[in-house]
Amino acid sequence: MSRRICGDLAAELMISVLLLAGCSAQVAPPEQIVTINWFASTMTTSGTDPRQTLIDAFQKANPGIRVSLSSTPTNTDEIRAILEDAIPGRIEGPSPDVYLGDVIWPAEFAQRGLAMPLDDRLEKSFWGRFHQEFVEASKYQGKIYAVPFYTDQGILLYRKDLLAREHLEGSLRTWEGIAAASRTLVGKKLIESGFVWQGAEYEGLTCAWTEFAADAEAIGKPAAPPANVVSRLDSAASLKAVSFMRSLLVGGASPEEVTSFREPQALQAFESGQAAFLRTWNSTLVSMSGLAESKLTGKVGVAPLPTFKGQPGQGASAIGGWSFFVNPNTRHLPEVLRFIRWMTSFPAQYTVAQYSVIPTNEPVRRDQVVQDNPNLKVVTRMRPVHRPSDTPDYPLLSKAVYGEVHQALRGAVAPETALRRGQKQIDRIRK
Questions:
Q1: Of 119, 128, 149, 403, which sees the most CB atoms within 10 A?
Q2: Would you place residue 375 in the very low, low, confident or very high pLDDT band (cuts 50, 70, 90)?
Q3: What whole-number distance in Å separates Cα of residue 192 and Cα of residue 183?
């Protein structure tokens, strides 16, 4: 599974961006050139990183602006630590004018004065280029503190050879279908495990709960329910979600070991041929390039995450990824805003899609080029939902979620008890 859209199509996309960038033929005098500092981690883990390609094209289109790129680590906690000192200028060297941050950071960084509100600095029409859920994930106390750049979303991988053999292709539409197909395949000893996912006591479990709860909330409602539906842990939708997650373990659709699985363990179970279904992230497809030489060659399918029976719309997919934040201390705000507008424009986001990185620009996500790439198309067929990260104390809130949900998954307490306990913790956090 390549990190690029192959052949002439990729070249055509690059040419379209560079042609647009080349429209400005004039060169600004050196004394008029403004340099902005962009702190960002790499966008890919294999192949060519698109950051410099995008910078070069932007500078051609904007000859009076230069972009100085500072690469940050890929670990989220390490990036946060660097930015905490770099934004206020407490380190040697340049401070960022603009930086990439995690999609769950807006509330935390806004509350700490590390990010500038942007809703009144970018025209209202600008925000229309994104799915509304991406914008909602960027808010804190009604203001927008981040601009979506690229995303990572939950997807489903499955053994299409096994589903075809047992005529189970129809199981992919619903969670109940996935559970039933898993039990069938395990019962016939065609596979060791059915459905594997991230059930350990950590942030990945919060993401899984977010998806199941959003699906449960949408049952019987119109195809386009309210954007974010996971505002309470002790809701009826959350109870249905956690009860179903527990039933996967009790009923044999998922192995008990799932309660210790993070992304690497779940991926290993699937890649080694032990599991029939895997809930994972779109970025996982990069690390699965080795499948080309494995016994699973040609046997793996990619599908949208399903939903529960009774929901006519799309399944929910948790939002991960990275957004643009602006340093409140920048002295080059007009140039930074021009950079952000350009990097989230249709041509630039076309280039992002070329590298099989999921763009946030909605017209690009609907474009035929994306729809022709099965690894990107699958994301556009799901309903993005964001985690309840609209509080600076989200790390504590998430811990309350995954801590109590994990207790319910293990059978240590009943789901109802776990959710009530977790909600009490959340209420204390939000006071």
A1: 149
A2: confident
A3: 10
Q: Which of 379, 348, 351 is nearest to 365 (CA)?
A: 379
Q: What's the mean per-residue pLDDT of the chain?
A: 90
Between the alpha carbon of residue 364 and those of residues 88, 332, 361, the distances in Å are 35, 29, 5
**Contact in structure between 103 and 140 (CB atoms under 8 Å):** no
Q: Which residues of 234-263 are buried (b: 16+ CB within 10 A; e: fewer)?
A: bbebbbbbbbbbbebbeebbbbeebbebeb
Q: How many CB atoms lie within 10 A of CB 300?
A: 19
Q: What is the DSSP string of 406-421?
A: HHHHHTSS-HHHHHHH
pTM of the model as a whole = 0.90
Which has the closest alpha carbon to 310: 174, 135, 142? 174
Residue-level pLDDT at 281: 95
DSSP E strand stretches across 240-315: 275-281, 300-303
* Angle of CA points 265, 100, 32, to nearest 5°: 155
Alpha helices in 273-373 (DSSP H): 284-287, 333-343, 346-354, 362-366, 368-371
Of 153, 198, 138, the closest CA to residue 357 belongs to 153
Of 46, 65, 57, the residue nearest 23 (C-alpha): 57
Domains defined for the chain, CATH in brackets: 7-152+320-385 (3.40.190.10), 154-318+388-430 (3.40.190.10)
Q: Computed from CA positions of residues 19, 23, 27, 33, in that sequence, does the dihedral angle turn out positive or negative?
A: negative
- Residue 108 has which token pair? 């935390």
